[in-house]
Amino acid sequence: MTEAPPSPLVTSRLRTPVGPRRDDQQWWNAQRGSAMPFQRYERSGSRLPHELTDRTWPMKSLVRAPLWASVDLRDGNQALSSPMDIERKSRMFDLLVSMGFKDIEVGYPSASDADFSFLRMLIEQDRIPDDVTISVFTPARPELIDRTFEAIEGADRAMVHLCNATACLWREVVFGMSADDVQRMALRSAEHIARRAESAKRTELRFEYSPETFNVTEPEFVLRLSNAITSLWDASPDRPVTLNLPTTVETDSPNVFADQVEWMHRNLERRDAVILSVHPHNDRGTAVASAELAVMAGADRVEGTLFGNGERTGNVCLATLALNLFSQGIDPQLDFSDIDRIRRTVEFANQLPVHPRHPYAGDLVYTAFSGTHQDAIAKGLAAIERRAAEAGTATTEVPWDVPYLPIDPKDVGRTYESVVRVNSQSGKGGVAHVLKSAYGLDLPRGMRVELARQVQQVADGDGVELTSRELRAVFAEMYLDFARPALLLKEFQLTSEGDTTDIDALVVHGEGREKRLAGSGADAAGAYVDALAGTGLAVEIAEITGHVVSDSLGTRYAAYAQIGLDGATRYGAAIAGDEASARLGAVTSAVNRAHA
After folding, report:
1. Which one, 41, 219, 525, 592, has least CB within 10 Å?
2. What single-letter DSSP state applies at residue 409?
3. What residues pair up with 425 in beta bridges, in sequence order?
């Protein structure tokens, strides 16, 4: 339950902006200057040695999936208040493999006995598929590098990931080192890794280097350092080095990061021997955009986590990135066909919930409560069904184009049952869609409007969402179940000759009086109306529609009648075992509603 906000009478630190408006502010913008200390965060100077005036990334589009690298088990795990145990790690690893990840960072074995033990278990139990490369993270310290190599002993293939912070602020404030000191430390560590790799004969080894805090490091320095390390590791096209560029703390808009990535992409030595990777964090809430623009700018690989778990506001969400590609007709090369199982596994491993509005995976992301949205979705789904029927094919073969739904929920394992949910904001389209999808009831338009008004009153009164079962109950109360019906059709018999149908019916009307009636008409409903004249009911049929329904009670027939009676129009409905009974029942229902 969401906690109520503080009372307006309670003292608040909020200060409603009353400062001067900007000189360039348009007359229609009434915003005022705030008391927020924004001057503390002013930034000066470019993140590049010179402006990138000939940038190419804005002219490009995403056309293929990058290499996805999951860091759920390392970066994501480090951010948990309760780090994963072996069972949670195993469930996450197995999920990543089954989804199709080929590059999985499995831990930080030099910092954690749990990570070390998990890695040994994967290797000793031969749990790593032949086409999956595990990655292990290590800081730039010889003893931690040694411990990392102990952890990967016996692995068929692995990547050792060396990382050290390079930015001026970190060098001066955290480490008390100069740029040359940082470079010497990184190169000594890279050389130590190379020496240890020579003795790891049983393992096919590759290397990764991350200049942590890349996005706020002087570009010339990080380029010089990166080139030196790839040279020391003798990067070649058949044994490439992964150079990973993190926005360790996201500080700039995505276009700035794209410029930085493109500048590195253009200026790196041995570019054909480098897998250029990015590792965006989400401090500004733009990690997905930063990753997408970085790929346009030349990145080959993206590190992130499923649903974005990570320090502070998290890592980039690989599920969002991959399904963004999917929604554009691009193969994500990962399988998300059971999004709820994926989410449940990640929630179990992380012990954190995925937000109900999280893109693609949240409980509510394919759900519409608004009446206008519901109507558009219902019409879009109907159009898909119509096109499929015209083409003589399944709806899954028809190109997806439905308002408000960027992808077909069924493609990620969801059903249409929750696409439209009904509350006080809903309209006729939503009510009709739920009844049709849950119970097969295809109401005529006028009845939809009438029922929606009643549903809205119920929802307004209760202040909550109505389930499909509750919605069916409102429909039944209005059209099917009458506590004191003015008319009851107990039995009838039809006979037809030529274009005429005769009816012999037994009805109960008024104060419970039974009466046998006879009438004739062009069809059963016409004959019934003719017979009802004998009770003083001058019923005129405006429309009767119906269709077959199949439910737990078997195959039945639903009918909907619109009649005129005593100068008013009324709708009625009935569900029966045969068409004639349903149609006559719908007329009876409409009469009862007229006398309710």
Report:
1. 41
2. G
3. none
Any idea which residue has 């009911």 for tokens?
Answer: 537
Query: Are residues 415 and 501 located together in one domain of the fold?
Result: no
- Name the pTM for this structure: 0.82
Asked if residue 279 belongs to a known ligand binding site, the reply is yes
Q: Please tell me whether residues 326 and 457 are part of one structural domain.
A: no
Same domain, 457 and 317: no
List Cβ neighbours of 161 (8 Å cut-off, separation of 6 or more). Answer: 105, 135, 136, 137, 138, 207, 208, 209, 210, 242, 244
Number of domains in the chain: 3
The reply to whether 423 sits in an annotated binding site is: no
**Contacting residues for 204 by C-beta, under 8 A, at least 6 apart:** 156, 157, 158
Query: Measuring CA to CA, which residue among 385, 428, 429, 441 is closest to residue 408?
Result: 385
Of 285, 318, 350, which residue sits at a domain end?
A: 350
On the CB side of 15, CA atoms within 13 Å amount to 9
Q: Which CATH number is 127's domain given?
A: 3.20.20.70
Report the greatest alpha carbon distance in the chain: 106
| 75 marked among binding-site residues | yes
Determine the structural domain holding residue 560 and report its residue range. 487-594
pLDDT in tens, 37-83: 989 888 776 678 778 899 999 999 999 999 999 999 999 999 999 99
